[in-house]
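Figure caption, in words: inputs first, then the predicted bound structure.
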Amino acid sequence: MKKKILVTGGTGFIGSAICNFFSNKGYSITILDNNSRGKTNRIKKSKNINIIKGDIKNYDDVYKSASGTNCIFHLAAINGTKFFYEKPDEVLDVSCKGIINVIDVAKKLKIKNIFLASSSEVYHLPNKIPTDETEPLKIPDVFNSRYSYSGGKILTELLGINNAKFFKKMVIFRPHNVYGKDMGEEHVIPELIKKVKSAKTSIKIKGSGLETRSFIYIEDFLEAFYVIFKKGKHLNIYNIGTEERVKILDLAKIIIKIFKKKLSISNEKIAKGGTKHRCPDISKIKKLGFQKKISLNEGLSLIIK
Ligand SMILES: NC(=O)c1ccc[n+]([C@@H]2O[C@H](COP(=O)([O-])OP(=O)(O)OC[C@H]3O[C@@H](n4cnc5c(N)ncnc54)[C@H](O)[C@@H]3O)[C@@H](O)[C@H]2O)c1
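Bound structure (nicotinamide-adenine-dinucleotide present):
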């Protein structure tokens, strides 16, 4: 039987891309989103997609939107680093009540397949880079509000894992720095693009510039997620990302080059709690058949054009 899927956070950057992708493949999709960060105009018009405006924190909204579906992709969350510092209480409220409602409703409606969005943030400062899925998860300082987000994601994982007996397939995925068009402004790449675009002579980058990240283009993310959807195993966790690491300084230089500008680069202080290096070990999704297609240079050119 073809799956009927509830996508929470479905008008968000990644959620909307997932909805359009799965609807193109003929799946029937229901979206639950309060559109706080999501936008309905990201969703391509299709008879396969039904959008419900509602709150993941509200049991009845989740129940109503999950009725008639047999699979849940749970992505609703308050994303964007600045919000982790500015409204940590809300960040936790959405992630905690959200996952509790998703699990309770799935149990009630006997929905047997759930895919939960976690994050690379759960690794904080990993012991190993590239980091595989067995890395211990950490909250280094409960008083730093930044960890409201990763705390909520760790709780999401714990609740998913400890309720796994109610599901045929309970899968957790940990995205690592997904980028693409219209991704929202509170992320490294759009922040840099904005700075470079408006700069005349110089830009400031956060941190020393020697910090590294691995970015995955949204089209590659979708391929990886689809592979997990099709072949991912019950009670498993999968990193989604690439092993192509880049220093933030080099990332700024690539963007400056695409804009054909000559700008000097200086540094500014970074908020406390960030991590120096982040790069996933993606052996698990490679084994399932995932292969990255779009390089960082290509992806950046695509979004800047
Ligand atoms: N973008 C990344 O690189 C990245 C990395 C790691 C993890 N993730 C995770 O992937 C998922 C999608 O991320 P994204 O980049 O698309 O973020 P996003 O902010 O674009 O999407 C999240 C969606 O959740 C919705 N939402 C927020 N609060 C809600 C509420 N109370 N009720 C209903 N909907 C609500 C927002 O309106 C938004 O549409 C999130 O769970 C995020 O934590 C993303």
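The mean pLDDT is 96.
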